[in-house]
Design brief:
- The complex is a heterotrimer of chains A (93), B (100) and C (326).
- Chain A contains four helices and no strands.
- Chain A has 93 residues and is mainly alpha-helical.
- In chain A, helix 1 runs antiparallel to helix 2 and helix 2 runs antiparallel to helix 3.
- The longest helix of chain A is centred in the middle third of the chain and has 25 residues.
- Chain A starts with a helix and ends in a 12-residue tail after the last helix.
- Chain B has one domain.
- Chain B is mainly α and 100 residues long.
- Chain B is elongated, with a radius of gyration of 17 Å.
- Chain C folds into two domains: 88 residues; 185 residues, no CATH class.
- The chains are: A mainly alpha (93), B mainly alpha (100), C mainly alpha (326).
- At the A-C interface, helix 1, helix 2, helix 3 and helix 4 of A face helix 1, helix 2, helix 3, helix 8 and helix 9 of C.
Chain lengths: 93, 100, 326
Amino acid sequence: MTAFYLGLASFLLLNLAAGMWRILRGPSEADRMLAAQLFGTTAVAILLLLAEAMGQPALRDVSLVFALLAAVTVVAFVRRAWRPATEEHSNDA
Amino acid sequence: MMLSQMITIVLLLAGAAFFLAGTLGLLRFPDVYTRLHALTKADNVGLGLVAAGLAIQAETWAAMGKMALIWLLVLLASATGAHLVARGALRRGIPPWTAR
Amino acid sequence: MDGAVNAAAWAFDALLVLTLLWLAWRVLMGPDLFKSIVFFIAFGLVMALAWVRLRAPDVALAEAAIGAGLTGALFLAALSRLAAGERIANAKRPVENSDTGKSTRPHRGVRMVFIAMSALFFGGLAAALLSLPAEAPGLTIQVAENLSTSGVSNPVTAVLLNFRGYDTLLEMGVLFLAVVAAWSLTPAPKEPVSPPGIVLASFVRVLSPMLLLAAGYLLWAGTHAPGGAFQAGSVLAAAAVLLLLSGKDMKANWPEWPLRVVLGLGLGVFIAIGLVMMLIGHRFLEYPLDYAGDLILLIEVAATLSIGVTLAALFLGGRPQRDERK
């Protein structure tokens, strides 16, 4: 079972790595932020798998903290850093 | 192999499939609204299935409860985040994609 | 079966290292600051996973709370205070020597020297790392032997607050100085307060008590399991940041002097306990065996409150201003 958990964790990490393409390309700032949000959830899932695979239940507290703080960056983005559309520089659509 | 282990494997694989779908949607969908749709599937269903699969193997009821709590918290955060981003995008005049 | 586990663990770790290196490269090399921030948030997430794999759950907790959660919000708030033109680093803007028409890139020879020096430094580090004994016990044995005298059962907390209390005391000092510096530089910007909307308002109302509860849990867990003041403090700070972001006014709800008292509380209590120990005949920060656990908890409670308020004050971005409308 341990190998299965670790394999699945690797698969999720691979997913995360693939999602970085969206941060790279954008095009809008919101798209980049969405990728970060998906990474947060993926990291929570990976941590739960690692807690089981490594036999360290304390790791669930790490994913609990991730879950608690999952929204902080998105809220900070929407309320502070997100500029009106007119200012947004469009690299490529 | 015990029945509980088989259930865990099935649930985890299903969860991983939703994460894959979420990532594919994030990469392939045409605009921010559709991408939001894809990624909240991974948040809600994907993590839910993974947590459910692992909860079956949990050693105590408290550990099981903690995993349920983690899932609920992510659910709350992702629903709020998705709403804020979608509303913000509409207000900033980002046009929703329409099929041609 | 064991071979399969090892192979899977090896594959995971290799993927982790490659992802981390690539992310670090992206954070540093991209000209677009917003992109760099998002990459940095992702870096924090993956770094926390790396700490987990290194079997350092305490550091992973701190990285999860501070690296992935708070610093992202801190950077985004800082970015929002930059003018639009400043969001792109190394953008084509008029430089001092533009009249000479020279590029600001250093000469090729200079770059070669830099590359050679970096390679030398990297080689030295790699050599030092490879020459380490494979199974270095470090101070693990000494810590394990003396754990029973520390008053706590989590070795990390024992080191941070008892055996190496000085380090933590100085870290608290650094945090305190950071706020002093931020407050000296500038008043907090007046953010336009827009109504948060019913969804965000309800979300913050539901989540903030849970964050408080989680902070208390992490603080309490720190005596026997991963957790402690820094982790609890940053969860506390996250609650304050969410409240600030949803339009709550820190200055209006919390007059200035209690804010200042709590900012200095952690450092103050830490030093006071150290001095009291000296008065009753011990050395600075040497706790008597019977009270060690209680004293550590007392310091940690004070430190948690201070860290939480310190990080929130840093997020505010300057000293609170008196409201002129009154």
